[in-house]
Specification:
340 residues, nine-stranded mixed beta sheet, 11 helices, Rossmann fold, alpha/beta, single chain, two-stranded antiparallel sheet
């Protein structure tokens, strides 16, 4: 069901007898932090961003691994794994590697999307999705001679035993943040990927579409090991989304308590600079309001220019909705090859 702006406001209790309250009163829609500046301490900002993610497991706890099976698929080797990343719930994963390897190669963490496909999860990596161009990214990465990893996130794939809403509520009661637990698993997945004998830990990258896009830029903002970031169709300016009454366009997983007291979307993405970052957006995509894309692009252009790295930030816009085009796929592959 698609909600109207009025219905969203009503559900939030922001309708009065006289109608809709002014946009400036909608959960701090106008309360924007100062633009990202170069003299802020990036390490302190990363620490603050991480602290907002709730009670998380020990970042240094040992990672357990079990290979379930190994098969050949579409010209590459596919490992099905069970990873102990968080000490709470086993994390199923796929690792794709070329049949022949000579030395260590670039390694990419692929972040699967949401799209209401709770049963899909990591299968998106090897099977694709209706809004992703073909072939699937496992095939793309291994054809390049690289290694790729994708995990099932909380409530997705083999972990879809509980609804998203119920998991969010249960975690909240425990002092946890669902997005925080998802980001934590991604950070630990990157730890595992970097430890693989095939992987060059100096050439790590990440990408994804939709929820996977958001994960890509959060992960790169928090972990400087990520040398190349590609986010497809989910670089959303939070404050623009509020002003446009678009909160219902994103799932409950997306929301982090107190985030807007400390960060704008551009603030978070500025933590990736000067490392390479390509964003892809659709002009008809309601998840990423155009006015918000303008805000982010302006700020990141300034940040990257100030660091002498203007060529390492790029935002591409296509006249489509929430999907990856053939042209975008070409640009993505070229960007990875150039910077990794």
């Amino acid at each position: 069901m698609k909600w109207t702006r009025r219905e969203i406001l009503s559900a939030l209790g922001l309708l009065t007898g006289g109608g809709v309250m002014g946009d400036s009163l909608l959960l701090g829609a106008e309360d924007v932090e100062p633009a990202p500046t170069l003299d802020r301490n990036p390490a302190a900002r990363r620490q603050k961003l991480y602290e907002l993610l709730g009670d998380l497991p020990d970042r240094e706890r040992p990672i357990g691994t079990r290979k379930v099976e190994e098969t050949e698929r579409d010209g590459y080797v596919l490992e099905k794994l069970e990873l102990d990343l968080n000490g709470i719930e086993s994390v199923p994963a796929y690792l794709a590697r070329p049949k022949q390897l000579a030395g260590r190669v670039p390694a990419i963490l692929f972040n699967h999307s949401h799209g209401g496909g709770y049963q899909i999860g990591k299968k998106e990596f090897i099977e694709g999705r209706e809004y992703l161009y073909t072939p699937p990214y496992a095939k793309v990465l291994t054809d390049l001679g690289w290694v790729g990893l994708c995990i099932d996130h909380w409530v997705f794939g083999a972990r879809s035993h509980t609804s998203e809403m119920d998991m969010f509520k249960a975690m909240l009661w425990q002092g946890r943040v669902m997005w925080g637990m998802m980001v934590y698993d991604s950070l630990r997945a990157l730890d595992y990927l970097a430890s693989r004998p095939e992987a060059d830990a100096q050439r790590l990258g990440t990408l994804g579409i939709s929820m996977g896009s958001t994960m890509a830029w959060w992960l790169a903002a928090l972990d400087e090991r990520v040398k190349v970031t590609v986010d497809i169709c989910c670089l959303t300016d939070f404050h623009t989304l509020l002003r446009e009454g678009g909160l219902g366009r994103h799932g409950i997983y997306y929301y982090v308590p107190s985030l807007l007291k400390h960060f704008t979307t551009a603030d978070i993405n500025a933590l990736i600079a000067p490392r390479a970052h390509l964003a892809v957006a659709g002009l008809q995509d309601g998840l990423t309001p155009l006015a918000g894309l303008d805000v982010i692009e302006k700020e990141l252009q300034r940040v990257y220019a100030g660091l002498g790295a203007s060529d390492r930030w790029k935002l591409l816009r296509y006249d489509v909705g929430h999907l990856e085009t053939a042209e975008a796929r070409e640009e993505i592959v070229a960007f990875f090859k150039r910077f990794i």
